[in-house]
């Protein structure tokens, strides 16, 4: 689709979930500002169409609790460090979006009032109504969870119509498409199949929470320029996880 397309989207309010690794570019670690800006432009192009946008960004480019605990750290402390990593990513995305003229709020599940707003559901809804992008940081605020679950939780609370999970590949495959040439992409797949076949969509608690609230998860490639806007308009390649379209 060309720049400046006026193609309309059927969605009014969505959750975009991306992993922390999406922000690190080819560096293998941390934040790569040009990559953050590229993703911010994708978000802006959807925002420009009047779609209300929630975002959750993981922290895996900086720190993962499980990796820390595997190296001997106490698990809950390691998880809190992981949650703090997500705040850094959220601030980087805020800076990139505001540099493009998009108003945002970083809303943290762990209080740090000098840095981010505390999470107050009604206030967050108001921000969305005022067309501010809400970047939800610090996961659920609880150890033993992931940002996939945080994204599903906040998407439910904010009454988002779907979760858009931006990944490196253009959907959900029966096996890893990077390693297997014969991997087959699903157009649609049910929540129960994701769980039963252990498909790499989101972790099991996030899928169960989406299933119990009938919240579709749309898996698409974040590397495709214009991809997010295209998927919202119903074009491009993606996998729809849910109970039928
Ligand atoms: N985390 C947590 N509770 C949450 C969300 C995240 O403890 O509600 C921690 C957990 O240690 C996790 C880390 O934050 O490994 C980073 O999040 P995640 O692994 O989901 O990031 P992603 O893989 O999406 O980059």
From TrEMBL:
Subcellular location: Cytoplasm
E.C. number(s) listed in UniProt: 2.7.4.22
Key word Cytoplasm present: yes
Catalysed reactions, as listed in the record: UMP + ATP = UDP + ADP
Functional pathway: Pyrimidine metabolism; CTP biosynthesis via de novo pathway; UDP from UMP (UMPK route): step 1/1
Record keywords: Allosteric enzyme, ATP-binding, Cytoplasm, Kinase, Nucleotide-binding, Pyrimidine biosynthesis, Transferase
Record-listed ATP binding positions: 17-20, 60, 64, 167, 173, 176
Segments of this protein annotated with the region Involved in allosteric activation by GTP: 25-30
Binding site for UMP: 59, 79, 140-147
Segments traversing the membrane: none
Subunit structure: Homohexamer.
Protein's job: Catalyzes the reversible phosphorylation of UMP to UDP.
Family per similarity comment: Belongs to the UMP kinase family.
Record-given protein name: Uridylate kinase
Organism for this UniProt entry: Thalassococcus lentus
Top-level taxonomy: Bacteria, Pseudomonadati, Pseudomonadota, Alphaproteobacteria, Rhodobacterales
